[in-house]
Amino acid sequence: MSAAPLLSRPSPSADLLFRDVHVLDPRTGFDGRHDVRVRAGELAELGAAGTLEAEDVEVVDAQGRYHLLPAFFDTHVHLRTPGQEHKEDLETGTRAAAAGGFAGVIAMPNTDPVVDSAALLGSVREVAAREARVPVGFLPAITVGSAGVQLTEMAEMRDGGALGFSDDGRPVSSAAVMRKALRYQRLCGGVLALHEEDVSLAGKGVMHEGAVSAALGLAGIPSVSESTMVARDAALAAYEHGRVHFQHLSVHESVEAVAAAKAQGVSVSAEVTPHHLLLCDEQVRGLDSSTKVNPPLATESDRQALIEGLRSGVIDCVATDHAPHAREEKEVPFEQAPMGTTGLETAFAVLYTELVLGGVLELSLLVERMTAGAGLFELPVHRIAAGEVANLVLMDLDARWTAGEHGWESRSANCAFAGRALRGRALLTVAAGAVAYRERSFSLVAV
Amino acid sequence: MNLLSIDDLDREAIERITDHAARFAEVSDREIKKVPTLRGRMVLNLFYEASTRTRGSFELAAKRLSADVVNFAADGSSVEKGESLKDTVLTLNANKPDAIVVRAPWVGTAELVSGWTDAAVINAGDGKHEHPTQALLDVYTLKRRLGKLDGLGIWIVGDVAHSRVARSNIVAFQRMGAHVTVCGPPTLIPRGIEALGCDVRFTLDEVAGADVVYALRMQHERMADAPVPSLREYAACYQINERRLTARQILMHPGPVNRGVELSGGIVDSPQALITAQVQAGLVVRMAVLYTLLSGPRAQAPLPEPQLA
């Protein structure tokens, strides 16, 4: 791969001093109050709280109240450029990312047209280099038009900056085509990120199949629609010595299939979304179309299995599957609504509020899982250590807010967590050495 | 006040409606069948799905109560191409209907509509979800015949998966004290239906224990994915006929009947069948529902009791 894997708009490098801030980075072992100096976009110095001198730069005097975390990385977002800019674009989508504390995202190719050629990839990368507030990487399609038939020109796209490939939104239904992609991977590399769904089993389903779908009279998608495909592709990856990443796991059978593949040494990884970690099919009873997502929200016991999978490491990272849709598209009967919820702006806060404050996960583990995604795509993982590029989020863990109360940075408002009372809010995000976001009520103190 | 789901009604509320219906039934037996109860009120029938009987029943019910009736019919496809459901509702709502009766092929449509209007919204069928007035008329029919539903064993037989009638009736019958068993081909019994509190059987072997057999329409139009090998095999396994139904059992069906498929021709015409009584009940129960909703707190002045002369 010759081209830069991640792109964002040119921004001035940050010069900042964080004074007496609680630094937490599970990878470098920091968990305490320190001074942190960012100079020309680099983490220049870390010192004991109150020891670093201000150098005519902006100073955040946290007085121990705020946390400084490595900024998050999202392996799965839909930024809708090209063709669906009424839902989102690279500017609004990455603004939402920065507001949520993310300093890197990977965009899916299911746009209009599908990003399935080097020319299209080049054009979206150009837009990213002009508009993106945080670095964006791209996964172009595995198959032409994501139609599941003919492989795309993966080698050329890898040279053109493709991080890997995905037909997200649709599965690679044919096992033969999937196998071909895995064989071709030996030539060009690049992770194959897989949306696992057996469309013959999913049928016209619009929610998880179970007691709730039976009561509502909605066509159900059985859990085995996902898990049989996870098992199939794990077997194919083992056979071809390939590398696959399973997107948005949703049911316990899939967690078990990934665990089995990992136990056999197959090169697989997996992600899970905040909505699958926190919501289940009971929440669909109200027929709020923002709870219509793909894969569908499954049962409470599936949710518990996903949490346990994330804790144990069977699931490697959290990904939002941020899927913006216009208001009029979601303001229709449940069956007609498109699938997806936004998630970038709420991901950390919902997980912190429900899982960390709920005593289910340690904060350090959550931070690890919200940053680990970069490594799965052969990118450097954000770390807080001297000499690293500054990818940081200043977090006020005590902040109380209501999701959506002041609108959204995203162009769309279809958030399954809208209206929830949350704790934890990003005050400042530094991405690739530049300030990408400042919370509007939060101003840096100039010294 | 709306009627969106049978689940919104407790036993007392159901009984209040069936009691009103019984009084309206007396009106229906008189020479002049119309009462002035809802004079000056407007009932809008918003139908996104072909329905001759339910729409006709609501229309007649409204007219018997002297309400004005406006019918708006559209097929689903025209809506997808053009005006959204929301815009249609906002447009129709501009004429300030007092009640909107909604039938649509999509789950939750009536509930969605209720968020866009101040009119009382009545769910006349939303996809495969619910059909609460059907459940009310079935409860009324059984009460008229048997006095009460407490302790009754009711079997709902057939295509439960595609039946909004089944879903509403399972809830309503249980709420009135009956015990419900659903029975049909395993491919037409939705996974998880037992969470509604009913028993599940895949054969009619034990149907002799039922007091009431409620057969569902085998919906040809929803059979694209062939859930049963053939209608012939379905009839062989699940048809309610003279051989399977004993003389003490009651037969019900929401109509329209496929003679020779879910019911034998002879059993439809037998005195055990309450099918025609159900249709008659549809009228008076819908009168009672309109009366109940439009005489609620929304009404500007308390309505007079239905005048029986």
Summary keywords:
heterodimer, A: 447 residues, alpha/beta, Urease, subunit C, domain 1, TIM Barrel, 9-stranded mixed β-sheet, 5-stranded parallel β-sheet, 14 helices, 29% helix, B: 309 residues, Rossmann fold, 2 domains, 4-stranded parallel β-sheet, 9 strands, 15% strand, globular
In short:
The complex is a heterodimer of chains A (447) and B (309). Chain A is an alpha/beta fold and 447 residues long.
Topology at a glance:
The complex is a heterodimer of chains A (447) and B (309).
Chain A: E1 16-25, E2 30-39, E3 42-48, E4 58-61, E5 67-70, E6 72-77, H1 90-99, E7 102-107, H2 118-131, E8 136-138, H3 154-159, E9 164-166, H4 175-188, E10 191-194, H5 199-202, E11 207-208, H6 211-216, E12 220-221, H7 224-240, E13 243-246, H8 252-263, E14 267-272, H9 274-278, H10 300-312, E15 317-318, H11 327-330, H12 347-356, H13 363-371, H14 373-376, E16 392-402, E17 421-431, E18 434-438, E19 445-446
Parallel strand pairs in A: 1-4, 1-5, 6-7, 7-8, 9-10, 10-13, 11-12, 13-14, 14-15
Antiparallel strand pairs in A: 1-2, 2-3, 4-19, 5-16, 16-17, 17-18
Chain B: H1 11-28, E1 42-47, H2 53-64, E2 68-73, H3 76-81, H4 85-93, E3 99-104, H5 109-114, E4 120-126, H6 132-146, E5 153-157, H7 164-175, E6 179-183, E7 199-201, E8 212-215, H8 231-238, E9 250-252, H9 265-268, H10 275-294
Parallel strand pairs in B: 1-2, 1-3, 3-4, 5-6, 5-8, 6-7, 8-9
Helix pairs in contact in B: 1-6, 1-10, 2-10, 6-7, 6-10
